[in-house]
Amino acid sequence: MKIDIWSDIACPFCYAGTTQLSQALANFEHKDQVQIVHHSFQLDPSSPFEPQQSINAMLAAKRGISEDQADQMNQQVGQMFAGLGLSMNHHHAKLVNTLHAHRLVHFAAAHGKQAAMLARLFKAYFTDGLNTADTETLVQLAGEVGLEPDAARAALESDAYTAEVQADINQAAQYGIQGVPFFIFDNKYAISGAQGAEAFGQALDQIWQELHAAAA
Description:
It is a single chain. By secondary structure, the chain is an alpha+beta fold. It has one domain (2-215): Glutaredoxin (3-Layer(aba) Sandwich). The protein is built from 9 helices and 4 strands; from the N terminus they run βαβαααααααββα. Strands 2-1-3-4 form a 4-stranded mixed β-sheet, with helices on both faces. Strand 3 and strand 4 form a beta hairpin. The radius of gyration is 17 Å and the shape is globular.
């Protein structure tokens, strides 16, 4: 079974959703026969590459609410994170363009480290308060997951993998994907959002049975 996932590292529900799927897969009998492929998506490709606005201010402007209300919403997301064993420090998160982070995920994919790199970027963004658009930060994070720092730097300082990021975004548009996370199972079944580990587990069982019943 192949699962294609579109996500953005600046999306808290993507962090939650991919974590929920990972938890479901840990208890899935056929997990060794599941291939995960992560795809890039940018919620706001116009975001600056240097932090200028807090997450609360961004959310308040987007929803037409006060920053206090936005803070309460982010606290609720933080509670969801805590239930998954994650930590959200939204007051310290650096709201930046995610293009270079997505390029780094593609670089990591070419070296067999895609999932680890994406997970580290989510944590860097939501927990560690790091600038995930900064080259030096990204190079350090690449090294942390076992990638060659100099090779990562060379990729980031060029336009390497920019076309691959755009291809993912274009494919999402062709599929009509307007929000993330978005999961496609074996090019047939779609799930949108962070549905919970139990729901993902039920989907894995059901889709596996349907796929293998069709193949029988």
